[in-house]
Design a protein that fits this description.
The structure holds 2 protein chains of 2 kinds.
Chain A lengths: L4 H24 L2 H10 L10 H15 L7 H15 L5 E7 L5 E8 L2 E2 L9 E5 L1
Antiparallel strand pairs in A: 1-2, 1-4, 2-3
Chain B lengths: L1 E3 L17 E2 L4 E5 L4 E5 L4 E5 L1 H13 L2 H11 L4 H17 L4 E2 L5
Helix pairs in contact in B: 1-2, 2-3
Classes of the chains: A alpha+beta, B alpha+beta.
């Protein structure tokens, strides 16, 4: 992303703040409401972000949040990234996927302009909902 | 994840569902897979599993709304006695209603 040291620190701070807000939000409401609330924060700092920049942002979110505690890493990562994208005026979709059957599991990721920015689970999960 | 579609023999069936019109709210999403239909209540954050028949019932309820219309179509699709279909459909409707996965347009009467 070509950020200065100060720029990187700011981004880390922004990610942590968004993470805390998401975690707090998830204690009070369901993910769909948290996603809506984060999107309502609006385009505070609209930016042009190409695919590479979006990938870098998603990568930064994953790296920072990998050292923070969470029960649902995929969902928290997704909502945090969604928050940052929304702030930058970047189109985003929260996708919920499921792995049906006796070994049922659910997974969440974020897409932007039809491209996944977070791991989709390697084809193991099939799309159930797009928010 | 809870499972819908296995009727409890001792449960009272409310046949008034046959005259009802239902709606699948927008916060309820579902998708059919080969072995089951998975339903997610986005507001509650809860997943439900429906067997093949119950999944088809939900699909048709979402399309038609009128329970009797759904019953008629299912009787044709499954080539089953109408009374049996109506019975099972009422059971599933009750379970879906209890879980907040469908809503009634009007109270049952």
């Amino acid at each position: 992303m070509g950020l200065s040291a100060w720029g990187k620190l700011r981004l880390i701070g922004e990610i942590v703040v968004a993470y805390c807000r998401v975690r707090l939000g998830m204690r009070r409401a369901e993910p769909i409401e948290v996603a809506a609330a984060e999107r309502r924060r609006g385009e505070a700092r609209p930016q042009e972000m190409d695919g590479v920049a979006r990938d870098h942002l998603a990568d930064a979110v994953e790296r920072v949040l990998s050292v923070l505690p969470t029960d649902s890493p995929c969902l928290v990562n997704s909502l945090t990234l969604l928050s940052l994208l929304a702030t930058r005026g970047v189109q985003n979709t929260l996708v919920i996927g499921v792995r049906p059957g006796s070994d049922f599991a659910a997974h969440a990721w974020v897409e932007s302009d039809g491209r996944a920015l977070l791991p989709t689970g390697g084809g193991e999960y099939q799309r159930l909902a797009e928010i | 994840m809870s499972t819908i579609g296995q009727a409890e023999p001792q449960r009272q069936i409310d046949v008034r569902f046959m005259g009802a019109t239902v709606e699948v709210p927008s916060h309820v999403v579902h998708r059919s897979f080969p072995a089951e239909t998975i339903v997610l209540d986005l507001n509650a954050g809860v997943y439900h599993g429906l067997n093949h028949v119950a999944g088809r019932m939900l699909e048709l309820l979402a399309i038609h709304g009128r329970v009797r219309t759904v019953a008629d179509q299912l009787a044709t699709e499954f080539d089953a006695p109408p009374m049996k279909i109506q019975h099972d459909l009422c059971v599933v409707c009750q379970e879906l209603l209890d879980r907040g996965l469908i809503e009634l347009d009007e109270p049952l009467r």
